[in-house]
Amino acid sequence: MKTNRKTLRLLTYVFPALAVLVFVILIPSVVALFYGFTDYSPGREVSFIGLDNYISLLTNSRFWMAVLNNVYYLVGCLVAELFLGFSCALLLNKRFRFQPLWFCLLLAPYAVSPVVAVQIWKYLLDPTYGWINYGLTKLGFEPVIWFSTKLTSMIPVCLVSVWKEFPFLMITIYAALTTVPTEVEEAAKIDGARSFNYFFRVLLPIISPAVLVGLVFRIIFLIRSFEIVWVFTGGGPGTSTEILAINMYKESFLYYNFGRGSALGWILLGITFAASYKLIKNANKSLLQ
Amino acid sequence: MRKSLTLIVLSLLAISMVFASGTEEVGNQDITMVTQSFAQNNITGTGLGTGDNLLEGMKEELGIGLNFIITNGTDEQQQMLFRIGALPETEEDLFYILQSMADDRIVNYLEPLNKYLEEKPLDGFPEDYSEGMLADFTIDGNLYAIPIRSGVWNIWYNQRILEERGITELPSTPEEIYEIAKACTYTLPSGEKVYGFASRGTRWDLHEQLAIGARMFGGDIITPDYEVVINEEPVIKFLELYRKMYAEGLMPPNWNNMTGNDADQMLKDGRAALSLGSANYSPRYNDPETSREAGNILPCEIPLAAELQTEDKKYSDSISFTWAISILKGSDQKDLAWDVIRYLTSDYASVELAKNENAPARMSVLDWQAESGDAGALVASATFPRTRSALPPLENSGEIIDIIGEHMENVVIKGMDAQTEMDIAASKIEALI
């Protein structure tokens, strides 16, 4: 009886949060799942079409092109963010002058709205008066015609994403580093461990749960990325930078194929789940250990 | 237990308050219009407008206030139509609709206006409106919207740059656009480049440019009777010319990222010699407060290929656009909404809207503008009798516009073969019509 009361009280506490989640996530997801099996388009009668949306998407070259673009974008951003995030976190973990100021400066891009960040970089990359091409020509290079090929479109898109988002991994890793007792480093040094060995054999295993959690979040965010690419290129030129979230947005809100858009949403969810499952499992395992 | 119940009740109360806050009552004499910022500027006379604020007259004469819900672009306006049009009851009453949105689905969302036209006719209706324009919004004999803003596209050129580069004559063939653009592409002593031709180029603008280009060579993208002709010779000729201009650096390399504002700014800064724009853009280009080239930017008609020119026809058909004002089916103030439409399309208000930078949909207002010496209006009135919109009303217009943009970018920016790309585009479009 006592246990029941306790359970009821606990449920009461989580009820508001659960109610919100049910309204804004569960119900829309179930509705989207249903729409995914229909040809729903505004102003037209809805018919149940089974798996047609999923089959047509999975057999469409445009979808696979978007998957491939997503892979380029994810790998390019994640590697750079991890490298930058780690480097900056390790630096910030040392004591030096104006360390809090540097911390704030490195964190600043994270506070900038994605659309504002893109606008700033659009000016920097402008072929006529942009600083990037100006700097390249001053260094004796040919100016780059940004957004004219897949490569010259993907580079700035990834660049802005990394510039804006690497502080997330930096702060996650930095927080983990601050929890490592100084005695660990001292003990490793006494045992004769060099910096390289200390980093890979001692420090990394200690902070790996935090790094894995950070990576899981970044993978999820990068797979469902939309704003930066959309505002920068709209998916172009051609379909050079069209990633899955842009594909989904176009299907739903520009082509008004809500059925296909919903199916794509569920495929995107599946990909996110598959990509992050292993990492989440490993992170949980490390945390339990 | 009591505590738990109290918490649940409080939570439910909080949630219901959140939802309840969105259903505030609008006063009976207030009409709500869903539109874009240009319409708000035209009606209120803000921005570069020199006409009256029509809200004041409407309040005084009809006792009706007008609220605006502003959307950020045509795609958002279309989404709003689907969202609020489907509701049996809405707080919104009036809706601005573009001709490309007017497929047969609008019968589910908009009120037929024939009954209102009979009971309380409009000034100058129908004789002062183009038949084609009204036909765009007519389905099964019912008119669903009244045209209120309509314009044609033409070339805008910087007279100073052309004179300085030794150009004495305006383009009379598409090839001459290339020649002039080439002569007007140069680098200033400051190192800044002036481009011969700069026009908006985002994905959602490209079909308009392709239609303008195709019509210069006597072709089209999709004919009014829905024949897909995007892979025919006129389109290919235009794309090859455009690719040449882009590859030779006569157009900005970031053309496909340039919005209308970007292109306008280049023209106003003296960094572009030629551009494409609506015939009513003269005030924005020649405003001394915002343009370094005020007084130098002038309109001219879009040329036609030499072999197609006749005594009666020297210029291209160009493209037009028409925004019309409609009443939502779910509005519970339809009669008041009609009174607002009557007021905004009246003889007096039509002229005041035109003074506030609205491209007039009524022929008499366009004639009045042309007689007043508005160079853009002169071009518009000459083009109006033969022009039409870039695409006919299409159910899948969003997807078709995206397909056109994708393959046009492949040709112009990536240098892919024009015929191959347009054949692919044609087969994709045919599957959607």
Give a brief description:
By secondary structure, chain A is mostly helical. Chain A has 12 helices and no strands.
Describe the protein.
The complex is a heterodimer of chains A (289) and B (433). By secondary structure, chain A is mostly helical. Chain A has one domain: MetI-like fold. Helices cover 76% and strands 0% of the residues of chain A. Chain A has twelve helices and no strands. Chain A has helices at residues 2-35, 52-58, 61-92, 99-111, 114-124, 131-138, 150-178, 182-190, 195-223, 227-233, 244-254, 258-288. The longest helix of chain A has 34 residues, at 2-35. The two termini of chain A are 35 Å apart. The relative contact order of chain A is 0.13. The mean pLDDT of chain A is 90. Chain B is built from 19 helices and eleven strands. Helices cover 43% and strands 14% of the residues of chain B. In chain B, the strands form two sheets. In chain B, strands 1, 2, 3, 6, 7, 8, 9, 10 and 11 form a nine-stranded mixed beta sheet that branches. Chain B has two domains: 26-151 and 320-386, Periplasmic binding protein-like II (D-Maltodextrin-Binding Protein, domain 2); 153-318 and 393-432, 3-Layer(aba) Sandwich (D-Maltodextrin-Binding Protein, domain 2), CATH 3.40.190. Chain B starts with a helix and ends with a helix. In chain B, strand 7 (186-187) and strand 8 (193-197) form a beta hairpin. Chain B has helices at 2-20, 37-44, 54-62, 74-85, 106-109, 114-119, 131-136, 159-164, 174-183, 206-216, 233-247, 260-268, 282-285, 334-344, 347-355, 363-371, 375-383, 397-412, 418-432; strands at residues 30-36, 65-71, 94-98, 138-139, 142-143, 146-158, 186-187, 193-197, 272-278, 297-300, 320-327. The model of chain B is unreliable at 21-27 (pLDDT under 50). Chain A binds chain B through residues 5, 8-9, 12-13, 15-16, 19, 42-44, 122, 125-129, 145-149, 232-239, 250, 253-257, and chain B through 1, 3-4, 7-8, 11, 14-15, 75, 78-79, 82, 86, 105, 108-109, 192-193, 202-203, 252-254, 256-257, 271, 396, 398-399, 402, 405-407, 409-410, 413-414.
